[in-house]
Every structure is written in C-alpha cells, then in structure tokens.
Amino acid sequence: MQPRMGVRGLSASARVARWNEIPLAPPDKILGIAEAFKEDSNPKKINLGVGAYRNNEGKPIIFPSVKNAERSLLETEVEKEYTGINGSKPFQSIVQNFIFNNSNKDAAGAKLIGGNRIVTAQTISGTGSLRVIADFLVRFNSAKKIYVPKPTWANHIAVFTDAGLDAEFYAYYDNNANDLDFANLTKSLEDADPESVVLLHACCHNPTGMDLTPEQWEVVLEIIQQKKLYPLIDMAYQGFASGNPYKDIGLIRRINQLVVEGKIPSYSLCQSFAKNMGLYGERTGSISIVTESPEQSKAIDSQLKKLIRPMYSSPPIHGSKIVETIFSNPELLESWLGDLDQVVGRLNTVRDKLYQKLDKTNYNWDHLTKQRGMFVYTGLSKEQMIALREKYSVYATEDGRFSISGINDSNVDYLANAINEVVRDFK
Amino acid sequence: MTVTTKFSKLEAEALDPIIATMARYAADPNPNKMDVSIGVYKAADGSSFMFPSVKMAKEIYNKVEPGHNYTTMSGLPEFIPVAQQTVFGDKIAGEGKLATIQTISGTGSLHMAMLILRSAGYTNFAVGTPAWSNYIPMAQHIGCTTSTYKYYDEETKTIDFESVVCAIEEASPKTVFILQTCCHNPTGADLSKNQWKTIRDLTINKDCMVLFDIAYQGFASGDKDEDAWPIRYFYEAGMEFVVCQSFSKNLGLYGERAGALHVVVQDKDSLPIVHSNMVKNFREECSFGPAYGARIVSTVGSTPEIKKVWDQDVAGVAERMVTMRRRILDTLTKLETPGKWDHVIRQTGLFWFSGLTKEQTERMISEYHIYLTQNGRVNVAGLNDANLDQFCKALDAVVRSS
Fold first, then answer.
1. How many other C-beta atoms are found inside a 10 Å radius of the C-beta of residue B271?
2. Based on the domain organization, do A105 and A221 belong to the same domain?
3. Which of these three, A295, A329, A363, is where a domain ends?
4. What are the Aminotransferase class I/classII large domain coordinates in residue numbering (chain A) (predicted)?
5. Which of B380, B371, B363 is nearest to B25 (CA)?
6. What's the CA gap between A308 and A303, in Å, rounded?
7. How do strand A118-124 and strand A46-47 relate by DSSP bridges?
8. CA-to-CA separations, B335 to A110, B172, B370, B372, B376, in angstroms, rounded
9. Residue A213: which residues within 8 A CB-CB, separation 6 or more?
10. Minimal CA–CA distance to B32: which of B266, B345, B364, B269?
C-alpha cells in the first residue's frame, strides 16, 4: 500500500505552476523615479517626474469645486449600485455636451449629437479609453497600423501594441532645434499607409508641450482626408493650454465641421477628467466615437458593450458622480472653471520664472515659452539629466521632460542654478 | 462626396440577457412589478442598502479627505493587505506568498487572472454549467479555449459531483478550473468540505490550475472566514492557485469597482516576476485602479470598530436570506404548490435556482410582472414581507397551469 502522501512528499513541480515561463516585466519608468526620489536624503531634492499637479507648497491639491461636489455627494448618496457597461448616461451626455457641443456653442457638434452620430462610453480614465478604442479598432478597422507622434506618452505604444495594433512613429519634434518639426511631420503623414489610424494629441502634447497652430492642423487634416487616415484624438489635458477648457478644443470643433461636411467620415476621442479636475485616482474618462450614421451608432454602441463586458463589466462611479454633480450645478461649474484657471495660471507663472532665471548665454531656452501644459521638454541630454539627479537630486525622466508643477517659489532658484551648472558642464 | 465606411464589418450585438430583462422591467408600467433578477442585495423594506460599515467608513473619508491622487499601479497600498487578510486570514497574508493587485472589481480580476494564466501557459478554461454567463466570453475575448462540464443536475437540484470529478480527472494538461468558492451563481449550490477535499486531492498532482472566484464571501454562512475555507485549505497544501475577489456584494460597493487578484506563488524568486507581469498587464489596460472604493474597503478592514460592524452586516445579510428562503418554502408548502421545493433552503446566497422552465419564467414576467432571469434564477434579496406572498402565489399559479 502506498503511504498517504504528505505535502512534503509531493514533487515541487507537480504542485507548483511553471511561472518561470514568464519573464520579468520592466517597471514603469516614472514610478522608478518616485522610488529613487523617496530614498534620497538631500533636503533640497526636487521631483519633476510625476504627471500630477502640485501647489506652490509642493503639495497635491483637491480642487475646491471637487471637494464641494464630493461633500454633497457623500451626504446624498444612498446606494452604490452598478452603472451600465458603458457607464452612466448622464455622464455620457455631459461629455458630449461639454466637448462636442462646446456647451451649445458648436453648431456642427450639436448636429452630430442631435443626429445620433456620437457614441460615448465611460471608461477607466484615459488609459482605459485608449485600450477600449485600440481593441475596437483591431477588430473593426480595415488597417491595423497606428501612427503616433515621436515622441509620445510611453504607455500609448504599450497599450496599442498589447491590443494588437502595429504602432509606428510619425515625425513630430526636432530635438536639436527644440521645436515642432512640422515639415517632417507632414512628410511622414503623407507617406503613411492609407486608412491607418493616426494619434493626435488635442492639446498640451505629452511630453513636449508643443502644439500645432490652427493653420498647421488645417494642413494635417487635409492629409488625413487625402490618405483616408482615421483620426484618434487623445485629450488628457483639456484646459491646460489656455486655462479654459472651452478654448482648448479647436481641433475637435474643426473636425466636427469636416465630419458634418462629409469630408471625414468618422473619428474617435479619448478624454479624461484626471488632470483638469484632479480626479487622477478615481479613473474618470470616456471614449467617444463619431460615427457615419445613427444605424452605425447603434451597432458600435453594442460592440463597445460587448468589448467592455469581458474586461471589467462596468466603470467606477465615484469620479463620474463628482463630474455629474459639478455639471448639474451652475455655481459648482463656475467654481471649477475658476479652479482650473488658477492651476494653469500657476503653471504658467512657474514656467516664466524658470525661464527668467535660466542662463541664456550657453543655451537657447526660448522653447520654454512656446510649450504649454504640465510639462517642459527641456532638450537636456540623458547625461545632463543623470547629472541633475546625481549631483543636484533633481528627479525627472531621462528624456528631459520636467513636470513643472513640482517647481515652486522655494525651489525655483535652486533648480535654475542646477540646470545652468549642468548645461555649462556638458557644453 | 461619398465616404467608404471603416466599420462595414459591424453588426448590432444582441443585449446581454440580464440587461434585456432589466430593460423590460424598466419599461413595465405595472405598479406592482417586482425585480428579482440582478444580483444586488436589497434591504428588508425593498430599498437599496448601504452597509452601515460603509457609512462609517464614508464619515472617516469625509473627515480625512484623502484626495484623488494616483495610487500605485498595483493598487492603493493600504488596500492590498486588507484584501489579502479578508480572503486568506491574517496568518497566510503575512507569509509573503501572495502576488496581489487591485483590480476593476470581480470581472476585472478574472480578466487579469486569465491574462497572467495565459502567459504561464494555461490557456484552457473549464467551466461547470450552468455558470455566470461572462466566464466563457471572457476566456474567448483573450483568445483562450473553454471546455464545459455539468456542475448542477436539474433533476436532483444538487451538484453533479461525479461529473465534476470526471472533468478534473480527464482534463487536458494546462486546464484552469474556475470554481466558485461560495454562493454559486446562478445555482446557489455549493461544494461541501468533503467535496473540496476530493477536488484538492485530484488537482494537487495534476498540471492544472484552480481559479477561485469569490464574489459573495460571507453570504453563505454569514461568516467571511468560514466562506473562505476552501481557499485556505488549498493554500495549506502548498498549492499554487489564483483568487478573484470582489467587494461588490459583501460591502455593497458594486459600482465603485473594488476588487483584487491574488496569485499564490510558492517560490520566492518567482513572486516578483509574477507580480511585475500582473502590474504590466494592468498598466496596459487601466494604469491605476479606482481609488475611492479601495479607500472605503481599507478603512473598513483596518479600523477594528468598523470591521466588527462589517462582520455583523454580512451576518445580517446572510440571515435575512436564510429567513426569506425558509418563508418561500413555508408559503409554497402551505399553497400545496405541485413539486418539490426544498432546494430553496439547501441553496445558499443571493440566488435561488428555482427550476422554473423558460416558458414558466416568461409567464412570471408577462402575466405577473415578476422579473427573474431566463434561467429561472431568483434573487432572494429582492423578496421581502410586502411582496413574498405575491411572488409565491404567482409561482404557484404558473406551476399549476403548466
């Protein structure tokens, strides 16, 4: 008779899965910076890595409008039941009216909404919306290639590639001139495979902060029509260019017009309230697909649901309830617009201060004044960024991007001096 | 100008059956309509139920104002140990063999589980029928195969354990068995401790994987620890397996999407590798999990007074459902409804798998305005003092005239 097997008697391989088939996944770069920053004992250390807003005291903030909305929500909320697979209906209408209809100021957008030509689904913030549309395009778009600007947010490529799209760069930025490389941008789009997807950053391009002018967008939209490219717009920073969210959607208004005129059949928009309401961790965003017909809207809506159901069933409600509370109360809405304006105002002040204190004899810093949003793309080399970290405890990604909300009155002099030193040292 | 459509391949998809039922319910003007379909707990007066423990946690949240910052890509740091302790108990949670990430509640956890298992070579998912309707589409969504076996016998209204055993014995290598830990959805028929022992013995030397889906922890026995027994029992044997956890039901946090994926990894060197891949998969779909629900869970779980209230909340829910089940049986007995109905008290949790046929279910809806799912599943929590008689009389009438 065989002895009863104890745990020890079993061979390890039988009980234990073969996890060694899995290679170690690389950590997220930004998180690595946060870790290293935490361990640095230099009292003057500065973290310019995170893409989240900090106030002049270096602290994260809760937008006062958001705080008020949340307080009233916590008092009145009586249940937490599921929202739909594609999220809350009021939230969908808010997104449509706010962005596509520009709160009743965009006739073309109004026409698209009225004609049932926009399908909106609430998603797991910006990343979730990019993932859902990527999965959707893999299944239903004729071309599987997506062109993304060089450079772009690192996770864009990871999300698209993992979904099965084939990501390729189009020229965007000239690292030597520290400026938009518009000539090569248009050239690479003209050379793009027809019917491919093209990713456009609506405003505050991440990481360069350098946006196209309306005239330049016009040229790009012309190429999009000629090559029948499918525009996928990512708008993570609505409001951070001008301080006013209604002013930062010029590209969308123009595309709406072209859609109404029948010149562009369809496009998609990914957006989130992570930055412009400071709702980062609540994961509040959406995907909208502008469709070719109301019948197609029905089909696309049902396909989005079919796609989302096996991924996560339905999106989280806390953030979307805050958005709904703000948009349903005119005073809160006013107050939010004021909060956002203040945040962007501080970023612009910080940008100016840094610019003034930088030594322009060794390096041309004019690009700083042209860039918009949460970042400055310094153009500093990898060696200079490493020197900043090792000698001055200034932490940022090695591509030379600073998240400028980490700058404030008490560290701007130290920072400018550190930059001036490394520019001199690595001249 | 004519434009060629990019989306010519598209056809409208039929609604998920449960969503279709809900839509019909919403459109029904009858004032006495009754919803016993979707798996949401209702209070004894039929109203929505906010757990008292959650109310307490919300008050703390309101005072502390933690803000809305990004958490980490593996979740809110203080949420992770609470999630682990809830399923595994404090002792196991402290042994360092769990790779855990916060997920978009139960579905998100299952999705992430399937992805990590796929990377490890486990690409076939075995589902006992009937089952939660999303398992098979979920496996297919990521290109994995599925196989089914009979879990529940409609005749005897009990688990067909022979069929379960046979499925495990004959499974091809690298098969994942999705097993619901308690309050089986939709049948309410749970495996006994002896049956779990048999399953452990069968799987321990086999190149297969067990995925525990624990969506209703505490709703079977009223005791969360007791309901998690099978998981801890497998752990004690030194096995590797995965657990998909949700706080949707046992804290009533449905729409907040609070849940976690735990992977038990025995080898210390492999654990960070497995974890890094879980984080990577999550980053490519979501970046971060939603903070608010996770904050509520961590406050409840790490504040002893609130945790005690939560234990009572869960016990109260389980007790109310046992009472309703008992009353259904008593009422049907009194009405002398044809057939055997004692399975209503043998089954556990929110759902009673009534055995009503599709036709009978349709008549419950169209003639009596009582909305259950097409497979005859009744959410017991949708019943209360005010509507129980109405429900039983309708069921009696439908059964009698079929």
1. 18
2. yes
3. A329
4. 44-419
5. B371
6. 9
7. unpaired
8. 59, 49, 18, 21, 20
9. none
10. B364
DSSP 3-state of B379: strand
Question: Do A307 and A230 belong to one domain?
Answer: yes
The answer to whether A168 touches A148, Cβ cutoff 8 Å, is: yes
Q: Which two tokens stand for residue A162?
A: 């993992």
Alpha-carbon gap, residue A365 to A400, rounded angstroms: 13
Check whether domain B17-51+307-400 has CATH 1.25.40.20, yes or no: no
Predicted TM-score (pTM) of the model is 0.93
Q: pLDDT tens digit string along A79-102?
A: 899 999 999 999 999 999 999 987
Residue B3 backbone class (left: φ over 0; alpha: ψ -120 to 50; beta: rest): beta
Task: Give the N- to C-terminal CA distance of chain B in Å, as an integer.
Answer: 60
Q: What is the DSSP letter of A348?
A: H
Interface test with B, best of A313, A326, A403 (most B CBs within 10 A): A313
Residues A339 and A325 in one domain: no
Mutate to test the interface with A, among B3, B5, B6, B40 (most CBs of A within 10 A): B6
Structural domain ending residue among the three candidates A329, A351, A376: A329
Helix segments in A228-328, DSSP class H: 250-260, 294-312, 318-327
Q: What is the pLDDT of residue B6?
A: 60
A121 token code pair: 């689904």
Report the DSSP pairing between strands A401-403 and A375-377.
antiparallel
Q: Does A28 touch chain B (CB under 8 A)?
A: yes
Question: The domain B70-302 is classified under which CATH number: 3.40.50.2000, 3.40.640.10, 3.30.230.10, 3.40.50.460?
Answer: 3.40.640.10
Query: Active-site residue A19, yes or no?
Result: no
Residue A408 has pLDDT above 80, yes or no: yes
Contact at CB, B13 and A306, closer than 8 angstroms:
yes
Query: Does residue A50 belong to any structural domain of this protein?
Result: yes
CB B297 within 8 A of CB B82: yes
Q: Are residues A220 and A305 in the same domain?
A: yes
Q: Judge if A253 and A106 occupy the same domain.
A: yes
8-state DSSP, A278: -
For residue A376, the SS3 value is strand
SS3 A67: helix
Task: Say what percent of chain A tops pLDDT 70.
Answer: 95
User: pLDDT digits over B57-115, tens only?
Assistant: 999 999 999 999 999 999 999 999 999 999 999 999 999 999 999 999 999 999 999 99
Please check whether residue B156 touches A, CB under 8 A.
Answer: no
Cα A296 to the center of its chain, rounded Å? 28
Residue A41, both tokens: 């004992």
Range of the domain at A365: 24-62+334-425
Catalytic residues of B: 132, 213, 249
Predicted confidence (pLDDT) per residue in A278-299, tens digit: 999 999 999 999 999 999 999 9
Give the three-state DSSP class for B99: strand
3-class DSSP string for A85-101: CCECHHHHHHHHHHHHC
Cα B54 to Cα B57: distance, rounded to the nearest angstrom: 5
Q: Distance between CA atoms of A45 and A406, rounded to whole angstroms?
A: 11
Residue B73 sits at the chain A interface (C-beta within 8 Å): yes
Contacts of A323 in chain B (CB under 8 A): none
Counted domains in chain A = 2
ipTM value > 0.85: yes
